Amino acid sequence: MMTNRDLESRVDTTDQWIVERTGIRERRIAAEGEATSDMAAEAARRALASAELDARDIDMIIVATVTPDMPLPSTAVFVQAKIGARNDCAAFDIAAACAGFCYALSIADKFVRAGAAKHVMVVGVELLSRVVDWSDRSTCVLFGDGAGAVVVSESRGDGRGILSTAIHADGSYASALRIPGGGSAEPASARTLELKRHFVEMNGREIFKVAVKNLSSASAAALTAAGVAADDLDWVVPHQANLRILEGVAERTGVPLTRFYLNLARYGNTSSASIPIALDEAVREGAIKAGQSVLFCALGGGVAWGSAVIRW
Ligand SMILES: CC(C)(COP(=O)(O)OP(=O)(O)OC[C@H]1O[C@@H](n2cnc3c(N)ncnc32)[C@H](O)[C@@H]1OP(=O)(O)O)[C@@H](O)C(=O)NCCC(=O)NCCS
């Protein structure tokens, strides 16, 4: 665990600044030697236990991450081996940054609805501590490491399940949040290392504005598509990036902030992992109960964003 006080000794910041601007108080940092697939596999095992399924029941593994174990192969194939899934199931990664979980959930929903898969493992996982510049106070205070997972299966016909999903992107914001180095555009070299091109770069203000706007419109659209009125919605489990962004979304959508399940104070922004981690905590705590309606919404680098409404 790393607290805001711990960060005060690394960069020119204060606990007060971080809490007031973001709502974040502490974040988790993966152990040295721990890889993204290790955390993803642990989350996947717990999701299997909750779903009372065996790893061999899984037909497809989708890992949403922008911090894969390595560029090739996908993190999903490491997860496949680590959890003991069948050696012929589908396994692939989705790169949609903080919206990755919404993207993966939407894909899983479509495969299951089409009858092309029975049980899809959806993992959101991120080891952002490995790609954050720990000397840049404008980014390093925001992020944390984490993993969460769900299994998407055929509906039992009891009205519970995924009611709507939507995914979007606007590439005109591509440079507002990125890790520019290490890909084909700027292959790793001594020069890219020297210029710190392998770390997260962000225009925080630009992302903030587009996040409030697009999360609000996507949330409203998801509710309409699901046939759930804002007043009847039980919970919002949003991407946990910044409390002020969520205050803006609450105001614009008319869903009070008291119905937002929030845990960003303890984990910071864990990107694609934030929704499944929050969902898991909310369910284990008994906050989200069977039959309740839940809205997911997330926006991140790309910008890419997505939303979904489920009946738990
Ligand atoms: C990053 C963010 C918290 C910054 O808050 P802000 O109110 O926009 O602050 P600004 O960037 O305008 O910076 C205000 C001042 O605080 C300073 N500052 C930035 N980080 C700081 C820190 N950790 N501690 C202290 N001061 C800091 C800036 O240097 C700036 O100083 P200046 O006015 O002297 O130039 C906010 O923009 C944000 O949350 N954006 C969205 C980021 C996000 O969620 N990204 C992920 C999306 S998935």
Quickly describe the structure.
Helix content is 35%, strand content 21%.
Provide keyphrases for this structure:
four-stranded mixed sheet, binds coenzyme A, alpha/beta, Peroxisomal Thiolase, Chain A, domain 1, single chain, 312 residues
Describe the structure.
This is Beta-ketoacyl-[acyl-carrier-protein] synthase III. Pathway: Lipid metabolism; fatty acid biosynthesis. Belongs to the thiolase-like superfamily. FabH family. The model has no long low-confidence stretch (mean pLDDT 97). It is built from eleven helices and twelve strands. It has a four-stranded mixed beta sheet, with helices on both faces. Strands 7-12-11-10 form a four-stranded mixed beta sheet, sandwiched between helices. The chain is α/β, with parallel strands linked by helices and 312 residues long. The protein is globular, with a radius of gyration of 19 Å. The protein has two domains: 2-153, Thiolase/Chalcone synthase (Peroxisomal Thiolase, Chain A, domain 1), CATH 3.40.47.10; 161-311, Thiolase/Chalcone synthase (Peroxisomal Thiolase, Chain A, domain 1). Strand 3 (60-64), helix 4 and strand 4 form a beta-alpha-beta unit. It binds coenzyme A. Coenzyme A (COA) binds next to helix 2, helix 6 and helix 8.
